[in-house]
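Note to self: keep these together.
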Amino acid sequence: MNKIMIKLQEFIKWFVFITTGILIVCAVCFSLSPEGKVIPGITLWEILLSGLLTSAITTFFLSREALDKWSVIVVFILHYIFLDMAMFACGVWFGWMSLDFTGVFSMSLSVAGVYLFTFAVNYFLDVQQADAINRKLKEKYKE
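Structure:
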C-alpha cells in the first residue's frame, strides 16, 4: 500500500506541475494569436486531460530506481519522445496544431517548454527540501 501512495503522490505532483506548464503555454499562445483569441472553456478541459495523460507518462518513466548515467539519459530521451507523441495526438485531436512542419515544430517546442518548466520547479522544490532536511539534521546533532 505504501508504494501505491508514493506513486499517487508522484502522479499528483507531476499533474500539478505539468498542467500548470501547459496552461502557461496555452495562455502565451492565445495571447500571441493575431486574432487576439480568448481561451475557450473546452480548452480548459483539454488542458486537464492532456495534463493527466502526460503526468501518467512522466510518473511511469521517472519512477525508476538507481539507474546509471547512460540509463538515465536514455530514460529522459524516451520520456521526451513519448511526451511529444502524446501531445501530438492531443494537439491533433483537440485542434491545437496542424500536421505540417510549423505545427509539429511548435508543439515540440511547447512540450520542451513545459518539460523545462516542470523540471525547474521540481529541482527548486527538491533543493529547498534538501536544505530543510540539512538544517534539521544540523540542529539535531549540534547538541
